[in-house]
Amino acid sequence: MNHPEDDQNDVRELRELLKKSVPRVHAELRRDLWPEMLQRLDSRTTRVPWFDWALAAAAAALLLLFPQAIPALLYHL
Amino acid sequence: MELLQRFAHGDVDAFEALFRQFQASVYAWIVRIVRDPAAAEDLTVETFWRIYRAHARFDPEGNFGGWARRIATNLALDHLKKARRELPLAVDPPDEADENPGTRREMREQIARAFDKLSPKLRVAATLALVEEVPYDEIAEALGISQTTVRVRVFRATRILREQLQGEMGKGGEL
Questions:
Q1: CA distance B174 to chain A (A)
Q2: Which DSSP symbol is given to B56?
Q3: How distant is the Cα of B83 from the closest Cα of chain A, in angstroms?
Q4: pLDDT at B94
Q5: In angstroms, rounded to a whole number, what is the distance separating the alpha carbons of residues B78 and B69?
Q6: How many domains does the structure of chain A reveal?
Q7: Per-residue model confidence (pLDDT) at position A50
Q8: Is residue A66 part of a domain?
């Protein structure tokens, strides 16, 4: 088991080595991301919920299987 | 009504104001974790998308920046988990100005490889604590863990890195 001072030295040494080895990054944001955010907001809000699609598919399937129901459906619409 | 209250009620204008106020700091935090500017931009938008969806759960008396950072950290961590093995850490070209005999390119590559092998949890703790020198209390808050846990993760990361480097460089090598 290492002595605590050795561990501290290891951490210091590793810190220096890591700083030189891990890619440097520029932390400044270089462009406004709001247009992308807005796009995301718009696309999600205009998206038709899956339940509506399922309902439409079920209705279409029903009409295909029972075409005689079409006049009744039109009557009720 | 105050900005945070309006946001909590789902006001998009308030959300835009908060987005513009915090996008740079959220991006800066994420890019320090994932080390990839393009991914950090995507994750910043994803962070705010989640923030927007969770507006009703936000307490207007709370700390928006801290909340955003917590969500951003979780997303960055998930990204690292997914990207593991797909995106090995690139090594910067050597900077001759600060080059010294102890840090040759070969050694940098060994360290980067060893770092890349760390689990995402240890890598995030090590990146923030050792590379970015973020205070432990900030890391703890962002990760939603105690400072002690952060210290343990950094210690474990250090030990694993040391062992891996010793393995690569042979028993007689430094570190």
A1: 10
A2: G
A3: 16
A4: 47
A5: 14
A6: 1
A7: 79
A8: yes
Distances in Å between the alpha carbon of B63 and those of A31, A38, B107, B130?
25, 24, 42, 26
The per-residue pLDDT for range A10-66, each reduced to its tens digit, is 678 888 888 888 777 888 999 999 999 999 988 866 666 778 888 889 888 988 888
Q: Would you say residue B174 has pLDDT above 70?
A: no
Options 3.40.50.920, 1.10.1740.10, 1.10.10.10, 1.20.810.10; CATH of B3-83: 1.10.1740.10
Q: List, for residues B76-103, the tens digit of each pLDDT value.
A: 999 999 886 555 554 444 454 555 555 5
User: What's at B86, amino acid-wise?
Assistant: E
Residue of B24, B52, B115 with shortest CB distance to A29: B24
- Choose from A8, A22, A40, A47 for mutation: most chain B CBs within 10 A: A22
Least CB-CB distance to A29: which of B28, B35, B115? Answer: B28
Is residue B20 scored above 80 in pLDDT?
A: yes
B96-169: which CATH topology? Answer: Arc Repressor Mutant, subunit A (1.10.10)
Tell whether A56 is covered by a domain: yes
Confidence class for position B111, pLDDT limits 50, 70, 90: confident
Predicted complex: ipTM over 0.90: no
Shortest CA distance from A20: residue in chain B: B108
> In this structure, are residues A21 and B165 in contact, taking their beta carbons and an 8 Å threshold?
no
Determine, for residues A17 and B111 on separate chains, whether the beta-carbon distance falls below 8 Å. yes
Domain membership flag for residue A64: yes
Token pair of A48 as six digits? 């038709």
* Residue A63, domain extent: 49-77
* C-alpha to C-alpha distance for A23 and B90, rounded to whole angstroms: 6
Query: Is A12 inside a domain boundary?
Result: no
Domain ranges across chain B: 3-83, 96-169
CA distance B75 to B114: 23
